[in-house]
Input
Amino acid sequence: FPRGGRAGNAGRMRSSFDDPLARGTPRSPEASTRRGGGELDLQLLPSLVVFDLDDTVWWPEMYMTAGNFHHEPPGSTRVVDRLGEELTIHPGARVAIEEMLNRPRWRRANVQIAFASRTDEPAWAMEAMRLLRVCTDPRGRDVTLEDAVDHAEVYPVRSKTEQFHRLKEKSGVPFEEMLFFDNESRNVREVATLGVCCIYTPDGMTVENWREGLAEFEEHVAHRRGEQESGGGVRPSLRRDGSFGSLSAGNSGKKGSGSGGRIFFRP
Output
């Protein structure tokens, strides 16, 4: 695989397309703090949006399938395994990816998309990405999950923090400018300690998760700005508002500690 040399990087991912409508010019690490030519609203968008795959982007999980994915009937967009079990994309993941690819605001911001999965069946996952249609592009052409993504870290690993360090290196995006969705609380809590804004999706990616995640990232930005202005850290705290809550994790206020991530979850 040309982009990173791991089984998690397919050759037809989005940044390899020769399509001026699909992408703007990729941001350099320095440009991640100057996004949108100074447009204030674009500063409230993440620079990199990362999704887990199993039961976040799709259902069922890879270990629950028999592999050998294919379109059934041939020529359709319906994807099944060798036993006929259908693999589907969660509605929230579909909406999120379609908006990032096609909405002018997102395209102006050049936001990158990534998948981070600890699946034990990476080859099956990559095949599913190649086959599953997620939306159409501005020209009306079908876009698969593989087409849509800039980076994919899809392989067994002890902790997802290892995959996020690779994503940071490959994308040039600092942790505090990332937004992450995952259905496992362990992954969410571990990645949040890096300073990533993390959204817990226990029922798979819903449209509500996507909307609330964007709102939480805006608060994440405001939280970081407040820390920078005050020059101090914020101790871990639990805050609940109606049916949702957030946890500020990772910053003890000690010298050299990280800024801490924001975990969004249903209490």
